[in-house]
């Protein structure tokens, strides 16, 4: 391989790496929301060079090694654990591009980078809606379910009698006679806890 052709291939591989990383939703979300701090965009740009260099220094990488490397970078640089299943996909893309580079197949590198760029989609992180925003009709019960000023939907999952989780709603126990547990207003203490007492 000639020096000029090798430099061109290296540039094509670098462009492919950047295209794959720019199309990666987990990285987009981390950058757009500043998970890497005030320099998130610069870190994302650096990440492309770091990944490219990683491949050049380690010629025979296995897919799981690439996944581990990308996962570590996301954790260390963006304080993000990628659990959406995209890590193996991005790692496979990068590995395939590097194999094209090693074989000197510039055409395949161009096509792959172009394909990734064309199907790139913009992804935005959205905040969870609270019951107050989604359940306007039931405003009174939403106000009753607020815990220490936090609206329903912010860490207020409670357990029902059978142990299953319900979104902020814990049904009252049904009366089964004179031995049933009753909750009196004076048994509810200030911080929202309820004292449960047995009848004697």
TrEMBL record:
<feature type="region of interest" description="Disordered">
    <location>
        <begin position="152"/>
        <end position="200"/>
    </location>
</feature>
<dbReference type="GO" id="GO:0006364">
    <property type="term" value="P:rRNA processing"/>
</dbReference>
<comment type="similarity">
    <text>Belongs to the TSR2 family.</text>
</comment>
<dbReference type="InterPro" id="IPR019398">
    <property type="entry name" value="Pre-rRNA_process_TSR2"/>
</dbReference>
<dbReference type="Pfam" id="PF10273">
    <property type="entry name" value="WGG"/>
</dbReference>
<keyword id="KW-0698">rRNA processing</keyword>
<protein>
    <recommendedName>
        <fullName>Pre-rRNA-processing protein TSR2 homolog</fullName>
    </recommendedName>
</protein>
<comment type="function">
    <text>May be involved in 20S pre-rRNA processing.</text>
</comment>
């Amino acid at each position: 391989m000639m020096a000029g052709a090798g430099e061109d291939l290296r540039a094509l591989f670098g462009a492919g790496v950047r295209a794959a990383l720019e199309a990666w939703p987990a990285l987009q979300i981390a950058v757009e929301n500043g998970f890497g701090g005030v320099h998130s965009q610069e870190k994302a740009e650096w990440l492309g060079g770091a990944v490219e260099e990683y491949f050049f220094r380690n010629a025979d990488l296995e897919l799981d090694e690439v996944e581990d490397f990308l996962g570590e970078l996301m954790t260390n640089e963006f304080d993000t654990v990628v659990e959406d299943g995209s890590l193996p996909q991005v790692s496979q893309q990068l590995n395939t591009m590097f194999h094209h580079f090693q074989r000197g197949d510039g055409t395949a590198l161009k096509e792959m980078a172009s394909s990734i760029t064309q199907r790139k989609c913009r992804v935005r992180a959205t905040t969870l809606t609270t019951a107050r925003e989604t359940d306007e009709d039931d405003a009174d019960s939403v106000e009753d379910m607020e815990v220490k000023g936090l609206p329903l939907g912010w860490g207020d999952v409670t357990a029902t009698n059978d142990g299953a989780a319900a979104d902020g709603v814990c049904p009252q126990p049904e009366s089964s006679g004179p031995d049933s547990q009753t909750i009196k207003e004076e048994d509810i203490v200030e911080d929202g806890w309820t004292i449960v007492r047995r009848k004697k």
